[in-house]
Amino acid sequence: MTLAMSWDEWAKHDAVALADRVRKGDLRPADLAAQAAAGIARTNPALDAVVEVFDDVVADTAKDGMNAEGAFAGVPYLMKDLGPTLKGRLQEFGSMIMQGHRPAQDSFLTGKIRNAGLNIIGRSTTPEFGVCSSAENKLYVTRNPWDTDYTTCGSSAGSAAMVAAGVLPISHATDGGGSIRIPAGVNGLIGLKVSRGVYSLAPALSDLSGLVSIQGCVSRSVRDTAAFVDNCRGGAPGEFMPFWSPAEPYSDLIKRDPGRLRIALSHEWGDYKAPPHFVAELERVGKMLEGLGHHVEWALPEVDFRNAFAAQTTCYISNFAQVIAGHLARLGLDKPTTDLLEPINIKIWESGLNTSYTERNAMQAVFNTTSRAFGAFFERYDIILTPITAKPTPKVGTSEYLTTSTNPSVHDWFANLWKNFAYTPLANLCGIPGISLPLAAQENGLPLGIQAQTRQANDGLLLQLAAQIERAIDGKWNGGKLPAKHVSRQ
User: Is the pLDDT of residue 288 over 80?
Assistant: First the structure.
C-alpha cells in the first residue's frame, strides 16, 4: 500500500494541519484513515494500545456518518473503550464481564465528534471499567512508548500511547480522577480536563449523575485541544444543568497571550508530597513562567485533604458499585465472579453496593467545603501548578495500583492509589478544569507533566497559558524529543 506521506512528515502534522491539507485538496479523508491504520499496525505489536480497528470505516470514511465538512475534515480518531457509545459497535470496558457488549445507540457526544469531522476508526485500551492506573490484565498490557518497561498509566491508556507514538494527532480520553491528565503527563502529551457543563454525558448520564466524570481528548498541540472543545462542547436536550459557552471560541482566544497571572506552585497536598526531582522540575517551570512575565510563588488552598480524599473514595466506590450492579442485572447474575471481574472491582462492588444516603450526604458536604476552599483560593491566585503525579511512573507489572491487586482492603487500595495520583482527583470533585503540559522529565527519562488548574469555567485561561508556553518553546514540547517507540522510528 502506498501511503500519502512519509512517517516523519505524518508525525509532524497536528490535527488542524491535516484538516487544512484536506480542505486544500492535497489529501482525502481516506488517505488519512489508511495512514493511521498503517501506523497502528506498525506500532501496536509493541504497545498493545488498540483493541480494534474498524476496517469498514477505514475503507469508507463516511460509513458511520463522519462529517467531512467539519473542522477536522476526516482526521482519524480512536474512541477509548468506555464512555461514549457507538451504535452496534463493541464496547467492552477492558473487562471480561463486558465481552461482546454492543450498545444500541450512539451517545450524544459521539454525534458531536463525528459532526466535528473526526473519523472514529477504532477503540483504544483502558483498564477494567477505567478504575485503576494502568491497562494491564488478561486482555492486554499497554506499554509506554517512551520506554516499554513502563506503564502509560490510565485510564486513557491506549489513546495516550497512540498519540505519543505519532500514530494519531488526537484521540478520545475520559477523566474521573485524572484519567486524561495523568496518561497525558507520563506520555508527553497535552491533556485538558474541562469544567462541568462542557461535554454532555447524554443519554445515560448527566453532569449531576456522573458527578466526577468528564470526557475529552489527548493531543500534541494546544490548537488541536482548543478546536476539539470548540466543536464538541454543548448539552443535549434535557440536561439537568445549564451548559455554558465562553465569550469567544478557544481557537481564537489562544492566539493572544494572557495578562500577567498570579500563579501558585504546590506539591504538598496533605499527606502527599512529590520527590525532590519533581519539586525541582516544578520550580524550573515556575522560573520559566516568571520569565514570561507572570508572578509565581508557593501557596496552597486551605483544604482538609484527608477528608477530601476520603469523600472522593466514597464517591468512586458507591458510584462504581451501582455500575457493576447494573451490568450484573443485565446478564442475569447475582454477583460477580473472579473470571468476570478483577479482585479490587469485586471488593468495590461489595463495599459500595449498600452505601446509605447518610454516607452520600456526608460525602457531598465534604465536596461542598472542598470546592468552596478552592474557590476562595482562586480569588487570590489565577492558577495553581503541581506535578502531574507524586511518584515516578510505575513499571509494567507493578500490581499495587492495579485492580488485579490482591490487597484485602479496598479502602487501603485507594489510600495507596492517592499516594501516587494525588494532584488530579480533587479537580473532579470540585468541577474545576486542569491541564497537563509536557514540560518536565522524570529521572527515569519518561515525561513528567506539569498540571495547571484554575477556577470553574476558566478553561480558556489554561489553554491561553498553554499556547503562550507553546510559542515560547517554539512548539517543542518534551524538549523536542520523541519516544523510543515512534511511528517514524521503525
Answer: yes
Task: State the pTM of this model.
Answer: 0.98
Average pLDDT across the chain, whole number? 97
The dihedral of CA 21, 25, 27, 28: what is its sign?
Answer: positive
Q: What angle do CA 43, 12, 193 make, to 5 degrees?
A: 80
State the Rg of the chain over Cα: 21
Report how far apart, in Å, the C-alpha atoms of 198 and of each of 119, 134, 173, 217, 430 are: 21, 27, 14, 13, 15
The proportion of the chain whose per-residue pLDDT surpasses 70, expressed as a percent, equals 100
pLDDT at 181: 98
Alpha carbon distance 226, 244 (integer Å): 16
Phi and psi, residue 384, nearest 5°: -120, 135
10 Å CB burial of residue 437 (0-12, 13-18, 19+) is buried
Q: Which residues are identified as catalytic?
A: 80, 155, 179
CA distance 259 to 472: 15
Rounded Cα distance, 387 and 366, in Å: 24
Cell numbers standing for residue 347: 471488593
At residue 208, does pLDDT exceed 90? no
What's the average model confidence in pLDDT over 400-412?
Answer: 97
As a whole number, mean pLDDT of residues 453-475 equals 98
Q: What is the pLDDT of residue 209?
A: 85
Confidence class for position 490, pLDDT limits 50, 70, 90: confident
Q: Nine-digit cell at 104?
A: 444500541
Question: ∠267-404-391 over CA atoms, to 5°?
Answer: 15
- Residue of 424, 387, 432 lying closest to 180 (CA atoms): 424
Q: What is the rounded distance in angstroms from the CA atom of residue 466 to the CA atom of residue 265?
A: 16
Rounded to an integer, the average pLDDT of 33-51 is 98
| pLDDT level of residue 207 (50, 70, 90 thresholds) | confident
Contacts of 302 (CB under 8 A, 6+ apart): 373, 376, 377
List 75's β-bridge partners, or say none.
118
